[in-house]
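Next up, sample data:
>
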Amino acid sequence: MKAKLVMTLAAATMILAGCNNDENEITDYWNGEIRLTSGVTVQQTRANNSDVPDKQIADGQTVYTWVDKATAPDATEYIKAWSLTAQGDGTFTGSSQYYPTDGSNLDFYAMHVNSTFAEGTSTFPTSAITHTVAADQSTNLGTAYLNSDLLYGLKKGVARSKNEVDLTFYHLLSKVEITLKQGAGKPALNRATVTIENTRLKAAFTPGKTADINNANTSTAQTARAGLVTCPTEDNAPAPIKIATEVTNDFSSAAYAAAIIVPQTVAADTKFIKVALEDGGTFYYKIPTGDLTFQSGKKYQYNITVNQTGLTVTSEIKDWETVGAITGNAEME
């Protein structure tokens, strides 16, 4: 899902009111502080509670930002590992930072990743960072899900200005959404256990200052973003991810359970979704013929009808616009 987070990291400003004999006027005594703000632009095709955290970086989540002076011929480090904490409403708390007084333009690089950097000390990472998605994301849209999300954004050549700096962030991993519907035989679903099977949980993230992730050409930008993340096989055996159980009566207005997975290819006929009923019966959905490559920045939505004898599954692959669809059946074991 090309989750496009339009993010401005809000810094406090000093606004003083002055008055004269003729009228009251407000004067902004801007002191060179960098002003950034935050929000998310989302195009939705249907009501979906699993899109809610895509609209803002959630309360308590950390974003690290590095800033360079964009001086020719090579940029120079200016701010190292600026740590900002999201407030869930588009604002952030953190230390105040200021534009240089020499008039240099600035380049911004920011990421939400489950690694820790020393504020003001850690230099921009030039080698791969291991980012791990949680094996238990069963609290829908909870902390484990939020921590699993990997976001990156950059903006170059920003001139000194009191205007806010808009940083566009992108989701670099993949998102899986699942909802269940009662089918033939009316099996009890509310206490069913749902897991995503046979995916690797570790990603290798190599942030790039030259990555063309903002290119107006969608294909070029998507390729650049996908190139920042790989799925290593060493010390990264496939493992299940527990996801919440969401049940609906109507797929057209369903709520979905969501989980973050690492982009990777899963072979055809591999068990991918497991539904275990509390009163007995375990069902699997297998990857259909032709393998399935989970792509960076896309979401995969599964509508599962649970019958007493097995599953019927339809699945869509989405960006913010539908880009394809796959269908398939599942079996009981």
Notes: Residues 1-22, 39-47, 320-327 have pLDDT under 50 and may be disordered. The chain has one domain: 4-332. The chain is about 5% helix and 45% strand. The CA atoms of residues 68 and 78 lie 5 Å apart.
